[in-house]
């Protein structure tokens, strides 16, 4: 149905344009100066070891899954999220090593740290959505062991990560929520008519039904709902684990990015 494709194309275009416009405005917002420190040196090393172990697990899962599914592996949104989560853990290890002093005292969270926090927000919210969609709509009782890790185990690991890291879900991260699913939808649309030869990894993505646009809208809405859930969990963390949360530095002036560089405002 041509009109269905046109409507879905318009939905994806609007999602991309809205995301890019919001991200552009976000770049010029002042960056609040926050600091974080681990409760003790051993907490720092435990967290670093945890992240390294998770990276090893993620690599093993992706290798095994690719062995079974071949190139079709990359066609699944679950795998896209899993890879994004792996990127987060790798970046988090690099950032943690660069802020080695946080094991003994407060360390200022740089703009890179804030960006890493934003990536965590997206990964966490998406992992919650994957759980709801998979176990609510797509559950397959014959799934292989690695699917349990990708559709639930990873979220449990993210909850542990959230308890250990110095992050809280940022309200500003909401501007990125629609970007990732829009990129995936465009990718899978192109893949469907090329190397996937008309096959859809998820039946609700097929454009042969007049209700298909509603499914795409529901997917975007679901991402925002799960971001809200992640934000709620963040509020609980701030209340229950205050020592694992960032602190606004006293007498610190906010910094904004400009064409000339970073400017104190």
TrEMBL record:
Signal peptide: none annotated. Keywords: Membrane, Transmembrane, Transmembrane helix. The chain crosses the membrane at residues 6-23, 44-68, 74-93, 114-136, 148-167, 174-194, 214-233. One of its GO terms (cellular component) is membrane. It is found in: Endomembrane system. It is a multi-pass membrane protein. InterPro entries: ADTRP_AIG1. This is FAR-17a/AIG1-like protein. The lineage of its organism: Eukaryota, Sar, Stramenopiles, Oomycota, Saprolegniomycetes.
